[in-house]
Specification:
By secondary structure, the chain is an all-alpha fold. Helix content is 77%, strand content 0%. The chain contains 23 helices and no strands.
């Protein structure tokens, strides 16, 4: 039997039919993308036709891309040389202007404003847009009752309610001027209210309330940055802020931490991003951490905990805080060990006193006057005094320690070992905080920090110079040469800032 030709085989025709059907489906599904690739002019004409239809129906603008504006812009993006899209956008602008006029006539002010904005975006002639905008403001003013707003503003001003709410004088005057920018009563009222507000700011400045003053000056600038009294008010505020910042620095240097914090807090109430005040608060936190160490050395753990809390609040990232926390923990351990000696006999007590005094002498030899807590010369002396306060050896050690600390300070300062000199100065201040010679010691140490910091700054060591500046400021904020050194450090920091 002869073979059946392939073109007469039914299975062959079923494959051909299936492929043809698949081709038809693909053409239908991808007809638009294919058209866009193969016939771009067809795509542009389709967009123009859709845009014309949207314009005829008043569908001028739509976020989903179906508005006449978006369709004309899409056609223009495909072929910028064709003028039909640009002409269409011009017709959309005119249609938006007409729609704004209709909406205004019917009292739909928000709609009129939106259409006017669209017309301006599409470059409608400015005189046409400005004329409609003026009519819109006039109608809005009539609708809102400008005379009523003016009366309300005048009453609020007479009552001293100048700003802070929608029903206060300045916001009310501002509403009137938004509707009628040349309204004389509103302009004069705003001017008088701003003068009153700046006078309030001046009163707060005289009382030292710079945060309240700053809030009023900022408000005045918001309502009219060109007010005649504003520059003088801003200059007075800046001077007050600078004075308060300097007061904080002086108080910090003299150990008056509470008043220093109040000064820096006041600065931040006026200038929240003031770097000097924030740095000052951190230094106060570090000072509280140091005080916590001293309290722990005296086994005053209530006071030490209070100082630690303040340090955590002001300098939570400081390494000195972690050091103070460790010092308090070690001092607690020392107290517990000493408590275990309360029932000791006289011979054992004497033996431990001798051991403590030997450790004290060792700490002296190493210059460990205040650190490490619990093992320093000062702490071991206190422990010996707790065991045997009447011991001649203990009294002799106490008498010896203060002159030794003073001598340490002088020796280390002469040798330019500035950090060791400062440790001796801190020990001296701890042992005899009211010593009349302490002020001079702090001044000399501050001068040494400035001298060494200046030398290191010249060598390019900006990190050390900045630290030297902080140390000098804490020791004596009025020391000669400090302002010049601070200025040089700031210039160097600005030059290296990214």
């Amino acid at each position: 039997m002869a073979a059946v030709p392939a073109w007469r085989d039914r299975r062959h025709w079923r494959w051909v039919a299936g492929l043809a059907l698949l081709f038809i489906v693909l053409v239908i599904a991808f007809r638009q993308p294919l058209a866009d690739v193969l016939w771009p002019q067809t795509r542009i004409q389709s967009l123009l036709d859709q845009a014309d239809q949207a314009l005829r129906t008043g569908h001028l603008d739509a976020a989903d891309g179906s508005g006449a504006r978006q369709l004309y812009e899409a056609a223009q993006a495909l072929d910028n040389d064709r003028t039909e899209a640009a002409d269409g956008l011009g017709r959309v602008a005119q249609a938006a202007l007409r729609a704004a006029d209709v909406a205004l006539g019917q009292g739909r002010f928000d709609e009129a404003r939106a259409h006017l904005l669209l017309a301006r975006d599409l470059q409608v002639p400015r005189p046409q847009a400005d004329a409609l905008a003026l009519r819109l403001r006039t109608r809005e003013a009539e609708h809102a009752g400008v005379d009523g707003l003016l009366a309300a503003a005048a009453r609020a001003q007479a009552d001293g309610r100048l700003w802070g709410g929608d029903d206060t004088a300045l916001p009310l005057y501002q509403r009137v001027l938004a509707l009628q920018p040349t309204r004389i009563e509103a302009l004069e009222g705003r001017e008088d209210a701003l003068s009153d507000l700046l006078q309030e700011a001046g009163s707060h400045l005289r009382r030292g309330e710079i945060g309240e003053a700053a809030a009023r000056i900022t408000a005045a600038r918001t309502f009219d940055a060109g007010h005649v009294d504003l520059p003088q008010a801003e200059a007075t505020l800046a001077a007050a802020v600078d004075a308060r910042r300097r007061a904080g620095t002086r108080d910090l240097a003299r150990g008056r931490l509470a008043s220093a914090r109040a000064a820096y807090d006041a600065v931040l109430s006026a200038v929240p991003d003031d770097g000097g005040a924030r740095q000052g608060l951190e230094q106060i936190g570090i000072a509280h951490a140091r005080q916590a160490e001293r309290e722990a050395g005296d086994f005053d753990f209530v006071g030490a905990q209070h100082e630690l809390d303040l340090a955590r609040e002001l300098a939570p990232q400081s390494g000195r805080l972690a050091q103070a926390e460790q010092a308090v923990a070690r001092a607690r351990e020392v107290q517990q060990r000493q408590g275990a000696t309360a029932s000791l006999g006289a011979r054992e007590r004497e033996r431990r006193v001798v051991a403590l005094l030997a450790r004290m002498a060792q700490a002296e030899a190493q210059g460990q006057w205040l650190t490490p807590p619990g093992e320093s010369a000062y702490d071991t002396l206190r422990a010996a005094q707790a065991l045997s306060p009447d011991s001649p050896a203990v009294k002799q050690a106490a008498t010896r320690l203060l002159p030794a600390v003073r001598s340490c300070y002088e020796d280390e300062l002469r040798a330019n070992r500035i950090r060791r000199a400062q440790a001796c100065q801190q020990a001296w201040q701890t042992l005899q905080p009211r010593d009349p010679a302490m002020q001079d010691a702090r001044r000399r140490l501050a001068e040494k920090w400035i001298a060494v910091g200046t030398e290191r700054l010249g060598a390019g060591d900006l990190v050390f110079a900045a630290q030297a500046l902080q140390e000098a400021q804490q020791l004596d904020a009025t020391v000669a040469g400090l302002d010049d050194f601070a200025s040089r450090v700031r210039v160097a920091q600005a030059a290296t800032a990214p």
